[in-house]
Amino acid sequence: MSHPGETPTLTPAEAMKPLPMIIFGSRWLQVPLYLGLIVAQCVYVFLFLKELWHLVTHATEFGEQQIMLVVLGLIDVVMISNLLIMVIVGGYETFVSRLKLQGHPDQPEWLSHVNASILKIKLAMAIIGISSIHLLRTFIEAGNIGNTGRVTNYTETGVILQTIIHVVFIFSAIGIAWVDKMTVATAGKGH
What we know:
Layout: H1 12-15, H2 18-25, H3 31-58, H4 64-96, H5 116-143, H6 145-148, H7 156-188
Helix pairs in contact: 3-4, 4-5, 5-7
């Protein structure tokens, strides 16, 4: 109860005018996007299990390099899946609403200090990891063209372009981290 002459205290929701309330509420439009990524995660789980089953049932027919290529494919699926989790959980926590996981034994360590800058750097590092796996597979498969007699879609130009794209990913991640470091340093000086 307020005393005469005092301004009544409004909750933040009551204090918001209609337009800012609509704009702020529009963040919930991202929920179907995150749910769609969860469906994509299910597709990757199915793909992983299918490839794992293929590896287990044909292990005696495969040579060492074929097994290594299938395992690299499995690692690739896991890394993409990890990227999806970072985007789903980190993006929802950063841009939509808090998940309220404080104290939960399974809370990811990185989630306690996630923000848009950290999420960008983590995503860039995950993309570099995924690109590294793809590039390694390309090098192995392209190097085996003459040995196995198998025809692949790798040309010298394609391998060079894939390598250049990978290097661009690395420089992009370095640039993102550098800009983030400069932003934190500038904010720390009181600017």
